[in-house]
Design goal:
- This protein is mostly helical and 291 residues long.
- 74% of the residues lie in helices and 0% in strands.
- It contains 15 helices and no strands.
- Helix 5 packs antiparallel against helix 13 and helix 9 runs antiparallel to helix 10.
- The radius of gyration is 25 Å and the shape is globular.
- The two termini are 45 Å apart.
């Protein structure tokens, strides 16, 4: 008579995972997500109300009087030259800083992953070490350097600062992702006569698309929402939207009729970028989790 094999004991972690995958937990997470959206909805509705209405009541009263919604605040905002110029400056800062970090980081990541050169591991350790350098430590020295070079107060100076501090993370991320590419695939491409640049463009870049998209989203959001670096390195003619909104604060109160629509516009652009590349971002995160 054969004995039935005892079922293996389930670990506490497996029991917790099973309980957390239930429908009640999903409902709870949806409620939490909606709760986190309340400030965003409140900002949107506040930007669609008149200054008088905002001073007299809260934004939630709009549900009882939806006819009082207006776009006058957005019209006033677009007529404000400082705000419109700052939006253009934000684009001029964010797009080059993102593209340069992605391109240079991808090239350096491929070199550290698959190319042999003297001191490769030591150079990579130096790059990793730069990840622990806080931005605040470098503000004064780099401000003095930019002042001597004539870059202080210019858009180019802000771009170079963001590129310099974005590259260590970019190189670290992409190098680790590229290193997981099967060596046989690269060797087959080399046997077909592909050089390093062609190999990088035709094989590595398509395979690294999810990681590159994730890096681009992170860099774009960081630069677009930055205020500290822009507040230090820009002047009145080169300030981005974050600094421009801060300067719109009145002496005896908040200029809510400008701040609300301006803050919402500055928030919509990174949200649109995130949702546009959401599929690639999720693919990159899942690929990193599997590997």
């Amino acid at each position: 008579m054969t004995k039935l094999s005892a079922q293996p004991r389930r670990s506490p972690a497996a029991w917790v995972v099973e309980k957390l995958s239930g429908g009640a937990v999903r409902v709870f997470l949806i409620v939490v997500g909606l709760f986190w959206l309340v400030p965003t909805v409140g900002l949107l509705l506040s930007s669609l109300r008149s200054t008088r209405d905002m001073n007299e009541s809260g934004w939630w009263t709009v549900f009882t009087e939806p006819a009082r919604l207006t776009v006058d605040s957005y019209e006033k905002l677009l007529e404000n030259g400082d705000i419109t110029d700052s939006l253009v400056n934000t684009v001029l800062i964010t797009v080059p800083a993102t593209v340069l970090v992605v391109v240079i980081g991808a090239l350096a990541g491929y070199a550290f992953a698959w190319m042999e050169f003297p001191g490769r591991d030591w150079w990579f350790l130096a790059v990793v070490g730069l990840l622990v350098v806080p931005v605040q430590v470098a503000l004064i020295p780099i401000a003095e350097l930019f002042g001597n070079l004539g870059l202080f107060g210019s858009i180019l100076g802000v771009i170079l600062f963001h590129v310099g501090f974005g590259l260590p993370f970019a190189v670290f991320l992409l190098r680790n992702f590229f290193a997981e590419i099967p060596r046989e695939l690269l060797e087959a491409a080399r046997l077909d006569g592909a050089g390093e640049l062609r190999l990088f463009a035709r094989v590595v870049m398509p395979l690294g698309g999810p990681a590159i998209a994730s890096l681009g989203i992170f860099q774009f959001l960081w630069v677009w929402n930055d205020m500290l670096v822009a507040l230090v390195f820009t002047d009145a003619g080169s300030q981005p939207i974050t600094v421009a909104l801060q300067t719109q604060v009145r002496q005896f109160g908040n200029n809510i009729d400008v701040l609300a629509p301006g803050a919402f516009i500055s928030m919509v652009v990174p949200l649109a970028v995130f949702f546009a590349f959401q599929r690639q971002f999720v693919s990159g995160v899942m690929a990193g989790a599997v590997k």
